[in-house]
Automatic annotation (TrEMBL):
It holds the Pfam family AMPK1_CBM. Residues 24-98 form the AMP-activated protein kinase glycogen-binding domain. Signal peptide: none annotated. Coiled coil: none annotated. Transmembrane segments: none annotated. It comes from Pseudoalteromonas rubra. InterPro entries: AMPK1_CBM, Ig-like_fold, Ig_E-set. This is 1,4-alpha-glucan branching protein.
Length: 100
């Protein structure tokens, strides 16, 4: 799940990436906005979700995926879109264009 918060005085959005993966021990966000370097997501025991907040420049689309336990790839089922990647699967897309 993606949630976005836009700032009136800054050209950036705070994006919260969330995924529920009950059997997962670790989940990492792997995205083009940080050169595809895995970012460890925090597990929230209360709602059983892995979460990560990240600020991104507005007016762009960014590709990302989730890496589960260092082995399995997953997409965000509520991403803003999906695009084919060079591995025969798809990447999730987060869009930081401000809606009018």
């Amino acid at each position: 799940m993606l949630t976005k918060r836009f700032f009136k005085t800054k050209n950036e959005a705070e994006v919260t990436f969330e995924i529920i993966h009950p059997e997962a021990i670790t989940v990492e966000l792997v995205a083009e906005f940080n050169d595809w370097q895995p970012l460890t997501m925090k597990f929230n025991k209360k709602d059983k979700r892995f979460k990560l907040k990240h600020r991104l420049p507005t007016g762009h689309e960014y590709h990302f995926r989730y890496l589960i336990d260092g082995e399995h790839w997953d997409n965000d089922d509520q991403a803003d879109g999906y695009v084919p990647n060079g591995f025969g699967t798809q990447n999730s897309v987060v869009d930081t264009h401000k809606q009018a």
